Amino acid sequence: MPETGSKFTASDLKPGKSYQVAAEFEEYDGLVRPVGETWKFKEKHSLPYEDRLTLILEKDGQEVWVHLQWRQETRGELIDDFSSFVQEI
Predict the structure, then answer these.
(1) Which pTM does this prediction carry?
(2) Considering the domain boundaries, does residue 6 fall inside one?
(3) Per-residue pLDDT tens over the stretch 61-88
(4) What separation in angstroms does the CA of 78 have from each of 12, 60, 61, 62?
(5) CA distance 41 to 58
(6) What is the spatial distance between Cα 22 and Cα 78, in angstroms, rounded to a whole number?
(7) Is the residue at 5 inside a domain?
(8) What is the DSSP letter of 72?
(9) 88 closest CA partner among 24, 8, 25
(10) Residue 54 is part of a domain; what is its CATH number?
């Protein structure tokens, strides 16, 4: 389990924990997550044959899905270096 301030991937997020966007990032489908956005992580789903990772979050009482892809052309490094973009709060 990653500790607050430690390095983690998008796959390491823990259900029930709250996170805040520290550096703006763009999802696989082009949506931008702005600095300061906060949410509670609920669950993740993967689609291995497409290298996809979906994060299911709760933001302002609404369920939000964040789509990422583990491929170089779709900023796959974002998944591996997620702690540079999101911090546990």
Answers:
(1) 0.84
(2) no
(3) 999 999 998 767 767 788 889 999 999 9
(4) 13, 24, 26, 24
(5) 6
(6) 13
(7) no
(8) G
(9) 8
(10) 2.30.30.350
